[in-house]
């Protein structure tokens, strides 16, 4: 197996160097490199890290790890699903590792989850090496389509109660998932009373992306809110998510009870409420009072 250039042996140990910017690099000590392949879209690597267990790496960037994936996957899933009073049909764009789908299936009202992932080889690798994430993709309520998410939503209207955009960073094939035409298509794919959510990056390293995402959703949806969670393996640790809602779900406090009923490792009802309390510097950057 040929190791990528960003994985090198130093002083008898194997290290993965993730380049975040010209000024920041993250080093991961590895136990092993389990899988390397190049798909038509990206380089896919599965490694076993010393601290966080197995990890999915795309084009040299760590996407998720067995050690802390539950934080991100629970937060991007449970908040919109609990806010919706009766989610039946859910669309997940991206998220080929399966972690978001796993969380969606915890809601008995959900009759169907459509997963649209551009790269089939990501899902195949995760099924083999990260079954704790991908293990629910064979559930009969799940339909997986390997195609471009933008092209998919162009062909659907008024079909989904909740749409979760679990994209990678806004570079390469994921860049279009942060642009206005895509968000407009997502809105049109929602049923009346629908909710969408997207990961809106780190306010430390991608503040312009967060600001632009909130601005675009403000223009399209009557109700928008940003919330956050600490994700240890993501640069800056503080990660944001932004909702676009076709109604005001916060008028009904019942959503808090719906979270309390679920089996989770990170999210609690109290934490979910608190996640909407943004740090002062984020509120200032977004120009909001929440």
From TrEMBL:
<keyword id="KW-0808">Transferase</keyword>
<feature type="domain" description="PABS">
    <location>
        <begin position="13"/>
        <end position="246"/>
    </location>
</feature>
<feature type="binding site">
    <location>
        <begin position="148"/>
        <end position="149"/>
    </location>
    <ligand>
        <name>S-methyl-5'-thioadenosine</name>
    </ligand>
</feature>
<feature type="active site" description="Proton acceptor">
    <location>
        <position position="166"/>
    </location>
</feature>
<feature type="binding site">
    <location>
        <position position="42"/>
    </location>
    <ligand>
        <name>S-methyl-5'-thioadenosine</name>
    </ligand>
</feature>
<keyword id="KW-0745">Spermidine biosynthesis</keyword>
<dbReference type="InterPro" id="IPR035246">
    <property type="entry name" value="Spermidine_synt_N"/>
</dbReference>
<comment type="pathway">
    <text>Amine and polyamine biosynthesis; spermidine biosynthesis; spermidine from putrescine: step 1/1.</text>
</comment>
<comment type="function">
    <text>Catalyzes the irreversible transfer of a propylamine group from the amino donor S-adenosylmethioninamine (decarboxy-AdoMet) to putrescine (1,4-diaminobutane) to yield spermidine.</text>
</comment>
<dbReference type="GO" id="GO:0004766">
    <property type="term" value="F:spermidine synthase activity"/>
</dbReference>
<dbReference type="GO" id="GO:0005829">
    <property type="term" value="C:cytosol"/>
</dbReference>
<feature type="binding site">
    <location>
        <begin position="166"/>
        <end position="169"/>
    </location>
    <ligand>
        <name>spermidine</name>
    </ligand>
</feature>
<dbReference type="GO" id="GO:0008295">
    <property type="term" value="P:spermidine biosynthetic process"/>
</dbReference>
<dbReference type="InterPro" id="IPR037163">
    <property type="entry name" value="Spermidine_synt_N_sf"/>
</dbReference>
<dbReference type="InterPro" id="IPR030374">
    <property type="entry name" value="PABS"/>
</dbReference>
<dbReference type="Pfam" id="PF01564">
    <property type="entry name" value="Spermine_synth"/>
</dbReference>
<feature type="binding site">
    <location>
        <position position="97"/>
    </location>
    <ligand>
        <name>spermidine</name>
    </ligand>
</feature>
<keyword id="KW-0620">Polyamine biosynthesis</keyword>
<feature type="binding site">
    <location>
        <position position="117"/>
    </location>
    <ligand>
        <name>S-methyl-5'-thioadenosine</name>
    </ligand>
</feature>
<dbReference type="InterPro" id="IPR030373">
    <property type="entry name" value="PABS_CS"/>
</dbReference>
<comment type="similarity">
    <text>Belongs to the spermidine/spermine synthase family.</text>
</comment>
<dbReference type="Pfam" id="PF17284">
    <property type="entry name" value="Spermine_synt_N"/>
</dbReference>
<dbReference type="InterPro" id="IPR001045">
    <property type="entry name" value="Spermi_synthase"/>
</dbReference>
<comment type="subunit">
    <text>Homodimer or homotetramer.</text>
</comment>
<feature type="binding site">
    <location>
        <position position="173"/>
    </location>
    <ligand>
        <name>S-methyl-5'-thioadenosine</name>
    </ligand>
</feature>
<protein>
    <recommendedName>
        <fullName>Polyamine aminopropyltransferase</fullName>
        <ecNumber>2.5.1.16</ecNumber>
    </recommendedName>
</protein>
<dbReference type="InterPro" id="IPR029063">
    <property type="entry name" value="SAM-dependent_MTases_sf"/>
</dbReference>
